[in-house]
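Supplementary Methods, section 5.1.

A reviewer requested that the exact input to the structure prediction be made available. We therefore reproduce it here, unchanged from the version used in the analyses.
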Amino acid sequence: MTKHHTRHLSSLSPRPIVCLVAGSVAAGATAQQKATPERPNIVFILADDMGYGDLSCYGNKYIQTPNIDRLAETGTRFEQAYAGSGISSPSRCCLMTGRNSGNSRIRDNQCYEGGMVGVKINPKGDTTYVRRANLLPEDTTIATVLSAAHYRTCLVNKWHLDGYDPGSAPNHRGFDEFYGWTISTVHSNAPYYYPYYRFHGDSLINIRENSDDAHVRHNTEISTDDAIAFIHRNKNNPFFLYLAYDCPHEPYIIDNVSWYDGQEDWPVDVKRYASLITHMDAQIGRVLGALDNLGLRENTLVIFASDNGVAVMAPREQLGSGAGLKGRKGQLYEGGIKVPLIVNQPGRVPVRSVENLIYFPDFMPTLAAIAGAKDHLPQVLDGMDISPLFYGKNVDTDSRPLYWEFPGKQRALRLGDWKCVTVKKGAPLELYNISKDKTESNNLADKYPKKVKEMDRIMRRMHKPSPNYPIPEDNEKID
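The structure derived from this sequence is encoded token-by-token as follows.
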């Protein structure tokens, strides 16, 4: 398999070994602090580069996802949910900090100034220098907020918010426990599906079964094992588990494609792509089974989403991964930011489909409200509490603007039925009525110039200058 090696220039060796006491519990935890249906455990499962149309419950006709489908069939499915961005790092930053990409610390996978510089080696062996931003100690994360409310917090697998700073790993940004990989180390900086190296906190460990590039333990299974072990250790504590799978991020590497053996006309990468998703679905079934076996299911809120839209190399047309939406990962068209979102908690979350407009910055205030942690929220947030939508009630989410940007390159605003977007530097803004035109096929900018000007003015106000992403527009006067 091909590995994309990346490393911080001033730190080429693994971090110092620091012991992580994985079985410890939150200080002061008591029986009264156990999770309840009203103040549940929270399991947030995030797929990587999975398209809006990749799930059977969202209309896919080819990919088998029975466990995720069951979550949708017995819970609430959101039809107009959006990621924080069209690419991994900024999207996850919006999720973790409650700010949109015009106001967050990390606004692209690379930054223009500051941060740290590292070396990236592409599949052809070419070396490039990459500058990345990272979360700073003053950045409040969901884990910080929930930990303050006596939740035990754990991130499994992908973080992508450390840039090239080893000190910005999740266990240094609010999480009690961390099992996975980071950008900042040459040993574990990409979605290795059969990894040999893995972090347990600050300790770099080996998956010995995968030594010498052996394909024995798939990363999705390793991550699930770590997640289930965390659940078992914390069955008597309220907990927040952020299970961030790599699937189906490229490269599409999985040896078992038996689910699709009958599809003889499918190229091998199409089978592997579908198998990565189906394999992840099976592992999600294991997590749900563990919750059931421990009697925790009714006391646990399960959330499933994808971090952005479908990737350019994915079989968008053959498998319908893009659901006919315009654009893909890396763009602010619907295909790059619209994602599946499912919420499930037996006895609490009703079976229904919801059309409300929501996006990743909403999760920090929402999970804080559910956990009784509102007092620990930071003062500056771009999201809102959408928890009433989880429990069968309604709340107006559509009258406020939702904003995205790749600084100086792309901008987008969703306001009610309307969306204003440009995905190319210097290109004019496009305008779409998404309620009537989900595929962004009919640009109405020339027909409604006042609407474009109004939305442009809102976007300019929502963008906040950043030392990591200085752009000339920051010096322009806003009308």
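The radius of gyration is 21 Å. These observations are discussed further in the main text.
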